[in-house]
Specification:
mainly alpha, 4 helices, about 60% helix, about 0% strand, dATP/dGTP diphosphohydrolase N-terminal domain-containing protein
């Protein structure tokens, strides 16, 4: 799978999750298509996809036993790492710990893990 394909899968899972879980009308940037996503965010999406995929493969079936919160937490931590990599002085909300994320975002992160896990190796 190419980096672009991995990033697109991540982004599509994000958009799908936002449309499903966000209360009200999401900000346009939350649901912007891949082509309108900044380059750094595309790279971050592909990197997080790769990290989740590596966990799933290295776990040899063990990842399927993670509960929904554990799945979402993993995605959130991977994303925070990418924010620190690409954004020199991120807003606190960009690097918020799991307990400080809004419930809708926790659900989206767990959905992303599930979407990556469903992809063939």
């Amino acid at each position: 799978m190419t980096t672009t394909e991995a990033g697109r899968i991540f982004r599509e899972a994000w958009i799908s999750g936002v449309r499903k879980h966000f209360p009200g009308e999401p900000k346009p940037g939350y649901v912007a298509p891949w082509e309108e996503t900044p380059e750094w965010e595309r790279q971050a999406a592909a990197n997080v996809y790769g990290l989740v995929r590596a966990l799933v493969e290295a776990g040899d079936g063990g990842a399927s036993k993670l509960n929904r919160e554990q799945r979402g937490r993993f995605v959130a931590l991977c994303w925070i790492t990418q924010i620190h990599r690409f954004v020199p002085d991120p807003k606190p909300s960009y690097v918020a710990d799991w307990d400080d994320l809004p419930p809708w975002q926790r659900e989206v992160d767990a959905d992303i893990f599930d979407a990556v896990e469903r992809e063939p190796a």
